[in-house]
Amino acid sequence: MRRLQKNLSDIEPLLYDSQEFNAPKNQEFLKKKIHQLAATSEKVQHNPTIINRDPTVRFVASNFASNLQRADQSFTAGKTDFSRYQLMKVTSSCVQCHTRLQQGPESNAKRPETFLKKMPVVDQAQYLIASRKFGAAYDLLLISLGQPEDENIFSWKSDKSAGLALQIAVQYEQDSSRAMNVINKIQGNPTLPYYIKTKANNWTASIARWKAEKKKPVTLEDYRRLLASGQGEIEAMRVIPGVLKLLSSDLPSQQLGEALLLAGESYEIVNDFSPMDLHENYYESCIRNVPHTPTSKKCYQRLEDSVRMGYTGSSGTSIPVDVEVWLKSLKNLSEKF
Ligand code: HEC
After folding, report:
1. Which of 148, 190, 223, 323 is deepest in the core (most CB within 10 A)?
2. Ligand 1 pocket member 98 (CB < 6 A)
3. Quick one: how far is CA 162 from the chain centroid?
4. Is the C-beta atom of 66 inside 6 A of ligand 1?
5. How many angstroms is it from 94 CA to the middle of ligand 1?
6. Stretches in the chain below the pLDDT threshold 50
7. How far apart are CA 290 and CA 295, in angstroms?
8. What does the angle CA 236 – CA 305 – CA 171 come to, to the nearest 5 degrees?
9. How far is CA 58 from the centre of its chain?
10. For residue 272, how far is its CA from the centre of ligand 1 (angstroms)?
């Protein structure tokens, strides 16, 4: 992980400056660094102490490794812009693994990374979370949510900033007051778009229920009830670390299926914030782990709905043949019990 950190911080200053990234003097250096990153990510994918802990880490590790491999190959093939775009997506894998639950060290290193200032604020925050500077990322996002919305509405800047800030406060820290600070910033900023204010109202209601809770959720049933109580982002971000801890223990098969389904449903709710489609990995894993059960049937239904939606556009739904074949085999596994 320290190596990942080092390689990332070497590349990042060039990533947001297309002139620097394409400058002939930097090509050898970039080629070497990108290749090292790809090789390290391959090792992460096969490192048993990192991988065994929970399914999210496993799913993200494979995503992470294939994105970096693609970046490495396209850079070598001279497609540097594609490679650059691919590399920009890499930090969201670091973020997804590090915020999944509170574990591991937090960095308070104050050394300012001067290149950060050149990057869009959402990317700065992602870089800080990748470097495990959760506190610094949260502070930065809060400041940004309080500022006038100056960018095009389609940049989704405030949406992404709110999502990351909640990922830190709710999912990672499980701290209702820090979550409320995020919402207060949104509600106090008249320039933010209407849809995000509507979301903020729902989050406020979820946090009020959270603060009024008499007992912390512990069991799978508690987490199931918690998700059902609101079906929103706050509930989902509270359920994820809890269900991941349960999944790291030895669950009896019926509970394993239920836990994978619940994790899938929770990740599906937050997928707009960090679109990695982890929920589909969870539904598939549910079907394979508890085949031919009522739970696997539910998992299949959700998987099929999500996949179909992904292939649906203005001209209807068109699913590639290989995807149809894959769905069909999972359907067979999920049925007949
Ligand atoms: C597949 C999941 C995964 C990905 C992707 C990932 N990490 Fe990590 N990282 C972990 C885990 C697991 C730990 C241990 C703490 C924990 O459980 O969260 C960790 C810890 C760390 C640490 C502190 C501990 C140490 O080993 O020194 C650093 C620094 C770090 N990661 C940097 C990065 C950077 C930078 C990236 C992206 C380029 C990244 N990581 C991507 C899973 C991941």
Report:
1. 223
2. yes
3. 13
4. no
5. 6
6. none
7. 7
8. 15
9. 13
10. 23
